[in-house]
Amino acid sequence: MKRKLSSIFRIGMEGRFQSKGAEADGNNGEQITMNSKRPTMTLNVNGLWDVVPRLDHYRLSRRAKRPSLAELHEGNPAKDLMNAATLEAGLPMGGHNASGQAAAKKHVGIKLGWIQGVLIPCLLNIWGVMLFLRLSWVVAQAGILHTCIIIGISAFVCVITTLSLSAISTNGEVKGGGIYFIISRSLGPEFGASVGIVFAFANAVAASMNTIGFCDSLNQLLHEHGLKIIDNGFHDVQIVGIVAILVMVLICAIGMEWESKAQNFLIAIIVGAIVDFLIGALIGPRSLQDRAGGFTGFNSTVFMDNWLPDYRYSEGANQTFFSVFAIFFPSVTGIQAGANISGDLKDPASSIPVGTLLALLMSMISYVTFVFFAGGAAIRDASGEILNGTIAMCDPFSKDGCKSGLHNSYSMMQLMSVWGPFIYAGCFAATLSTALTNLISVPRLIQALGQDRIYPGLIYFSKGYGKSGEPYRGYVLTFFVAALFVLIANLNAVAPLISNFYLASYALINFCTFHAALVRPLGWRPTFKYYNTWLSLLGFIACVAIMFLIDWVTSLVTFVIIFALYLIVVYRKPDVNWGSSTQAQTYKTALSIAYRLNSIDEHVKNYCPQILALSGAPNARPALLHLANLITKNNSLLICGEIYPSRMSYRVRSAHLRQGYAWLQRHRIKSFYHVVEELSLEKGASAMMQTSGVGKLAPNVVLMGYKTHWSSCSYKELQEYFNVLHNAFDHRLAVAILRIAEGLDCSSVGSTGSAEDEQHSGALVQSSYDLAGNTLMHADSDLSMSGRGIARVQSVPSIGTQFIPPDATAPIRDSPTHWSARDHLKNKKRHLAEKMLMNNKQNGLSVVPEYLTIFQKKHKNGIIDVWWLYDDGGLTILLPYIISTRTNWEHCKMRIFALANHKQDIGAQEKEMAEIMAKFRIKYTSLKMVDDISVQPKQETQDFFDKVISEFRKNDASDNAECVVTDAELQSLRDKTFRQLRLRELLLENSSQSTMVVMSLPMPRKGALSAPLYMAWLEALTRDMPPTLLIRGNHSSVLTFYS
């Protein structure tokens, strides 16, 4: 073994990237030869394994895994030896054996090339019902000139769309789902899913339209031979159409191989029919009956007569250019056929552009050729009858009208051909092949939507069967939708609707390319270069304009449907990350605005409190974050800061951040989450104050929780907490301290004594709190709720955070309170959340304390008392005003208390304060001037204070001089201390029953005030009080009365 390892090491030092791939020779059983099919590796001088670039490392499946940065940087000697032995044994790295590789290479269905997978499906989709049944009628209505313009506009839209489609489809691997996959991965699931549904519906209806065309042609053929099923009309179309749809769905469900064989046969018949018509038109009429039907042969007079349009009343409406365009346009909507089955292509990136462009070129040439042949060799109106050996004349505007000619007969192509039955065969092949292509794409598109779990209702239809994963349930759904529209049995009734849906899809394809090319994220690297950003924008505008010119009502309906589907996805917020261009646009927009904001001078009118909340892990002090969210929601920046005392590995840190953001998202708190490591509270808080934020998007308020157990903690902890305040003021930041009588840290609530019980009960209370938040949790990609992270949120240690032991997760998940997505949609009312909390209690779970949800509850008759004692720039009055505007607090009364100078007239001071409040346009219920602040506090209040500081009056703490309250300090600050004690008496007298108290924070004079004395002041102001928020601004104005 030693010899083998030394051999491998020598090879690695020589820089040869080799792997064992051949039999050893007779002289040396250790020779390693080159083999590109194995993951080639080298052993560097540190004994760590590196791998050369390999395609499998970049696949989503991650069948092969490169060494992590931690493995290379930190090393793992035992694993290095194992890797060496693995390489010597000829096995691939990463633990993949032969069976694993065989499973990775399992059969995934038949793959098609660009001819069979793109060119032929596109031609079959384009050469549809309109070619054989409506193009002659279009020539009669629009004339040769306008018909060429219609074809030109259609070609213009389709060419631009094809270029856009080609650019997107060559920007990475395209999987199953076609148009949906392309748009969703480019613009995001909101656009992709909505257009995917519309496009699937359009394809299903297009299959119905082509089937109706087949039935019409069959009826005409039966009529010529005096045959019928029921009435040779409406009911025959319905019966034959449903049977035809059923047969075609079965052909599609059999698999791609049978469908491909059917397509080859059908395309041959279509091409033969086209050639049959062209030869027949060149030969000219072969009988008097042909002339009577309107077939004159090529004639300059006929050509000129048919050159200009002749729009008439037809198909139940007065025809115009755009009404005729709407009927013709579905005949060019086959360019997406290859993209629809992109998952079945060998190389979608190259097949889609080549096959689609070539199919479009061939079809447009054939259409223009047909127009010139039909317009130059047939007249618009003919009687179709022979009287006494001569052609009977007819008046198209008479009561009887004309029965033949381009205007009146849909069978002119059959009349002008060499052999008429071949045209019927071509018509049958064209209509059925187009319907077949549409029917293939719809189930696969539905399958892609269902597999992405965008719309829950489609998941059932996305299940795949067999080796190739055929969506048989999707085929059943497609059959019923297509059969429903076949029952309409009117070709022209569905064509305009299809045109709008296809144009909407094409518009978004062009917009996708335009948006991606404009934003140009680093991932935008299409191999197809023949596209243009502004040409794609022009294509988008053209599609939308044509939609409304065709039928503005149908266009509005189309956009309303797309918008409704879009809103559904926005509401559900699927947990997907596809790297769409909208994500790149969001980043670039945010970056641009951040740069722009940095150059904008600050103004008091635009002041926003940007809060750095020193909360620890988000779920540790939820009340603190909910208060911060009340202030910053939809207005300003909130950063949740946690200081971690020890070092975390990258994996643990990533999990910690992910869990923190998951908690914030579940509770709908818009906040950033910032974690610093290996720092004390003082240094960590200082680091956050200096580094949090970007440019002007940086905190200007530090929000902290009150240190409830300050009198019993270590002197070092107390001094660090006190120094955080000094650091904040040193950085010219405002400070706010929140105290709730029961404390803010919910992780230790409900403990029964032992560490294990405390840990378990804290987790249960936290889980109950998550449920009591009554938040709207969105569905992840697997349809379970984000609330499923309840058990994992606390899987990483943090300050003040308890853990959920493995055996504690089961009762939470199995309890009646575990919400699924469907349960949540049915249980939005608050009383149901309360019922679930009662279920928690019955199951032995701790009921969440009321004080933890005080900032989430609705307070109908609450009172907010604001003690604006010192002018700090107005922040002390601004923050409670913001809170009072929130939905849950808007019915609370706001009372203002302000200090008065007893040497001046109290009435005048009250009037002045009222004028200030009026100038600042802040509504309040009452205003009270406090004029007895200088009165000496009662003896019992002084005794209370003496008891509070008694632990810090001892002389045995000489080694912690900063945490000792000396007689000299008490004497020098006697008046200020008495003021705080007198304020306590006034607070208890006026605000002890209020819902919330907001008060000016005493200023800790640097170097003149010790930490225990200052904390004793705060204790005096906040003990036995409702939730109290102490605020001290940075003494810059945050309010103004100027406009």
UniProtKB/TrEMBL annotation:
Residues 117-612 form the Amino acid permease/ SLC12A domain. GO terms for cellular component: membrane. The keyword Acetylation does not apply. Pfam families: AA_permease, SLC12. It is a multi-pass membrane protein. GO terms for molecular function: sodium:potassium:chloride symporter activity. It is found in: Membrane. Residues 621-1043 form the SLC12A transporter C-terminal domain. GO terms for biological process: cell volume homeostasis; chloride ion homeostasis; potassium ion homeostasis; potassium ion import across plasma membrane; sodium ion homeostasis. Keywords: Membrane, Transmembrane, Transmembrane helix. InterPro entries: AA-permease/SLC12A_dom (IPR004841), SLC12_C (IPR018491), SLC12A_fam (IPR004842). Gene3D superfamilies: Amino acid/polyamine transporter I. The keyword Transmembrane applies. The chain crosses the membrane at residues 114-137, 143-170, 234-253, 265-283, 321-342, 354-379, 418-440, 475-495, 501-519, 531-550, 556-572. This is Bumetanide-sensitive sodium-(Potassium)-chloride cotransporter. It comes from Nasonia vitripennis.
